[in-house]
Write a structure and sequence with these properties.
Elements lengths: L8 E6 L5 H13 L3 E6 L9 H8 L18 H7 L2 E7 L1 H9 L5 H8 L3 E6 L3 H5 L1 H12 L3 E2 L3 E4 L5 E5 L3 H12 L2 H6 L9 H7 L6 E6 L4 E4 L2 E3 L6 H12 L3 E6 L12 E4 L3 H12 L4 E4 L6 E3 L19 E3 L3 H6 L6 E8 L3 H11 L4 E6 L11 E2 L1 E5 L4 E3 L3 E2 H11 L1
Parallel strand pairs: 1-2, 1-3, 3-4, 4-5, 8-11, 8-13, 11-12, 13-16, 16-17
Antiparallel strand pairs: 6-7, 9-10, 14-15, 17-19, 18-21, 19-20
The chain binds ligand PMT.
């Protein structure tokens, strides 16, 4: 049995509060679990714990300033942000939370946060009045809206000797929240991490899709030629059903309109409408689109269908050569996105060349809010694999490139962006 943190890259951000001493234990727990940890500490953080302690435990130099004073070496917050699988800021003081919420990039920890490509979790620590202050609560809400997970502080005795809410979660509790973040369905079978009670705080932050109905199209479509033959493609439906599973885990009411896929992919808590052809997929998706909030078009829809479907099996002996006349199928994503009225629509772009260029054109032409580019030239991506490598572009001009990950993790990344 392995820890689900084994081999993961974690940036541990430490800001200046008395709870910083707990981060030494947290660092030890991460290292013991097999993670690689890069510590980034604010100048105030160094008043509470020394970089020497932290670098001895992590086995890496601790980063605090933009430059190393004696050599002038520049520390790239972009590289650290891209290296990380997860950033954990513990303790996060009121000041650091305010800077994160407002993008005040005046130290290495905040610039790293702003460059982080992966998920960020914060463990706030402060006095009860500071925590309760509307300014702090406003900033916390901003971070939640930005997709940051908040590991809520506990109630208890504080450094000021007052009693109340503001005490940073214990290192073991933060470790549990991090473990749960890394757990995927596959991991659960192979590692000995199990979520504990502390995780409730993190879980509630992740139920962001509660009350939302999500429509997902998945799998291939088959366009009949005769009673035994069809035009189809290699889509398995794995990407679409990973999205369905993760959306349901985030509290959404999920319906999948699926082409012919393996029935074992279908999760219990997801409603499925089975279809075969593109026209059937459009009809079912149109019905479900009516009351949905978000529509994700992950299906590989056949672009063309035979003009005529033979009633009887076409006999090989009678046809030396054969011409098949095709007619263009309706574009489901474009049709529904043209009447979206406040709904969020997400399309996929499956490309073999000029990936980004084509994906951005589909974003525009199909009136989508987001487009997820996956490329046939990337090994382990696209059809019938358990992994995918995507770049997500938004109508707001944003662009996020993710490394190769399991389709469950890719689904989580996409849903978090939404
Ligand atoms: O199912 P898997 O084996 O897990 O593989 C996943 C996947 C590769 C199928 C998936 O990640 C993916 O890329 N799905 C979209 C495939 C596709 O048809 O791409 P496209 O670039 O041709 O289409 C662009 C978008 O328009 C897609 O959202 C597609 O669903 C939609 N479309 C296309 C044609 C059409 N007639 N109707 C549509 O809705």
């Amino acid at each position: 049995m392995n820890s689900c943190l084994a081999g993961k890259h974690i940036v541990l951000g430490i800001s200046g509060g008395i709870a910083a001493y707990k981060s030494v234990y947290l660092l030890r727990l991460f290292i013991k679990a097999g993670a690689e940890v890069q510590v980034v500490i604010t100048p105030n953080g160094k008043e509470f714990i020394t970089p020497v302690t932290l670098s001895s435990l992590s086995g890496k130099p601790v980063i605090s300033e933009f430059f190393t004073a004696n050599t002038g070496e520049w520390h790239s917050h972009v590289d650290i942000g891209q290296w990380a699988d997860l950033m954990v800021i513990s303790p996060a003081t009121a000041s650091t939370i305010a800077k994160m919420a407002n993008g005040v990039a005046d130290n290495m920890l905040i610039t790293t946060y702003l460059s982080a490509k992966e998920h960020v979790m914060v463990a706030p620590a402060m006095d009860l009045d500071m925590w309760a202050h509307p300014a702090t609560q406003r900033n916390i809400e901003t971070l939640r809206a930005d997709g940051v997970s908040i590991i809520e502080p506990a109630s208890g005795e504080l450094a000021s000797h007052l009693c109340g809410k503001g005490r940073m979660e214990e290192p073991e509790g933060i470790l549990k929240a991090v473990e749960e973040y890394f757990l995927t369905a596959a991991d659960k079978a192979e590692c000995d991490c199990a979520p504990g009670s502390v995780y409730r705080h993190f879980e509630s932050a992740e139920k962001k899709l509660a009350g939302k109905k999500i429509l997902i199209t998945a799998g291939p479509t088959y366009e009949a030629i005769d009673p035994v033959r069809f035009i189809g493609n290699y889509s398995s439906g794995k990407m679409g059903f990973a999205l369905a599973r993760e959306a349901a885990a985030m509290g959404a009411d999920v319906v999948v309109v699926a082409g012919p896929v393996d029935a074992s992919l279908v999760p219990d808590n997801v409603r499925v409408v089975n279809v075969v052809s593109a026209r059937q997929m459009l009809a079912a998706a149109e019905t479900e689109f009516e009351d949905c909030d978000i529509a994700i078009f992950a299906a590989a829809v056949a672009d063309y269908a035979p003009v005529e479907v033979a009633d009887m099996k076409i006999k090989r002996e009678k046809t030396e050569e054969m011409e098949l006349r095709l007619v263009r199928n309706p574009d489901i994503a474009a049709t529904l996105s043209s009447r979206k009225e406040g709904r969020v629509t997400v399309g996929f772009a499956l490309e073999s060349d000029h990936g980004l260029e084509n994906a951005l054109r589909k974003l525009e032409n199909k009136n989508l809010d987001w487009v997820v580019l996956n490329s046939l030239t990337d090994k382990g991506a696209c059809f019938n694999t358990d992994t995918n490598k995507v770049t997500v572009a938004g109508r707001d001009g944003s662009l996020r490139a993710f490394p190769l990950k399991s389709k469950d993790e890719v689904a989580r990344d996409i849903l978090r962006l939404l």
